[in-house]
């Protein structure tokens, strides 16, 4: 009689639209190597993918940009990203934003189900959670979102920052 078993530990298989959390392990030529708990380890960020970087505008990339890649993401930085598409060489194109201030936890990918809501605020603890489909979970202090288009006055009423004419 033969006994067989299958381990529940497996690698994450990315799909377009997945929210993933990872850690930068290496900065290379025109791309970063990221630990995503996947067999696909490279990521490339296209023009417009770095919306949080004011100096990474839509323009032709130069060798100076390659030298400054560590100003955007450096080794050991934690990122949160959405899988945008796959390259022929097996790398991912993702849209990313920085998550430098927080902790990275790892669970088996099968424990995190794909969902419409991967970003969670735990009010009682004052923390934000990002559940990556790849089994990585980012935990950090809650940061309050402020809409700069709305100005409040002393009465607590919301008003438009622009005056209107009758």
TrEMBL record:
GO molecular function (one): RNA binding
Gene Ontology BP annotations: CUT catabolic process; exonucleolytic trimming to generate mature 3'-end of 5.8S rRNA from tricistronic rRNA transcript (SSU-rRNA, 5.8S rRNA, LSU-rRNA); nuclear polyadenylation-dependent rRNA catabolic process; poly(A)-dependent snoRNA 3'-end processing; TRAMP-dependent tRNA surveillance pathway; U4 snRNA 3'-end processing
Domain RRP4 S1: 11-85
Pfam families: KH_6 (PF15985), S1_RRP4 (PF21266)
Superkingdom: Eukaryota
Main location: nucleus
Keyword set includes Transit peptide: no
Subcellular locations according to the entry: Nucleus
Keywords: Exosome, RNA-binding
Any single GO CC term annotated in Swiss-Prot or TrEMBL for this entry: nuclear exosome (RNase complex)
Domain K Homology: 102-142
Family according to the record: Belongs to the RRP4 family.
Designated name of the protein: Uncharacterized protein
Organism: Arabis nemorensis
UniProt lineage: Eukaryota, Viridiplantae, Streptophyta, Embryophyta, Tracheophyta
């Amino acid at each position: 009689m033969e006994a067989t078993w299958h381990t529940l530990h497996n690698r994450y298989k990315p799909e377009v639209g997945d929210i993933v959390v990872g850690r930068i392990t290496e900065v290379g030529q025109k791309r970063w190597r990221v630990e995503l708990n996947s067999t696909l380890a490279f990521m490339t960020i296209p023009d417009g993918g770095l919306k949080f970087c004011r100096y990474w505008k839509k323009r032709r990339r130069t060798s100076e940009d390659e030298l400054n890649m560590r100003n955007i993401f450096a080794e050991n930085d934690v990122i949160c990203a959405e899988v945008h598409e796959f390259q022929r060489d097996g790398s991912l194109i993702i849209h990313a934003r920085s998550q430098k201030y927080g902790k990275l936890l790892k669970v088996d990918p099968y424990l995190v189900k794909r969902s419409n809501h991967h970003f969670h605020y735990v009010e009682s603890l004052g923390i934000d959670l990002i559940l990556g489909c790849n089994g990585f979970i980012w935990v950090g202090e809650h940061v309050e979102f402020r809409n700069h288009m709305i100005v409040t006055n002393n009465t607590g009423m919301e008003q438009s920052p622009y005056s209107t004419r009758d």
